[in-house]
Amino acid sequence: MSYVIEDYYATVDSGRLRDAVALLAEDVDFAMVLPTGVNRDRGRSAMFDYLDGRPPVNRKHVLLRVAADGDIQFAHGAVTENDTVTTGYFVSAMHLDAAGLVDRYQVSFSADFPLVPRPSNEGEQR
How far is CA 75 from CA 62, 63, 105, in A? Predict the structure, then answer.
């Protein structure tokens, strides 16, 4: 079974940002809790602007756990750059509307706290 949350991260990581935000409702509410502060905004175009404005690096979201309960999906994973360095860990949740689009999205990121510890031989940066 494939989850929207898995499809979203895979599509973002592929660089197909327009396709990624097409998985979101036009008026999606989102909150990103980052070490630099909270990015709280609304709308598919605001999410696209955020994603498109990130520095160009080979960034991947490595999903370690995914779950769903009704209309909410959850993920925990690592963020890697250049396929070798783990830059941090995230926990995210997405609420799906009746059409199956993400209408609410929340994610938190920590540079050094994995919810699910990974072996140190997997390219972690400490």
Answer: 10, 7, 11
**Quick one: 33 exposed, middle or buried, by C-beta within 10 A (0-12, 13-18, 19+)?**
middle
Q: Rounded CA gap, 77 and 18, in Å?
A: 23
Tokens of 88: 């941090």
Q: Which of 2, 4, 14 is nearest to 102 (CA)?
A: 4
DSSP label of 82: T
Reference 93, options 85, 104, 82, 83; nearest CA is: 104
Burial class (CB in 10 A: 0-12, 13-18, 19+), 10: middle
- 69-124 pLDDT, tens digit per residue, is 999 999 999 999 998 899 999 999 999 999 999 999 999 999 999 888 766 655 44
Three-state SS for 103? strand
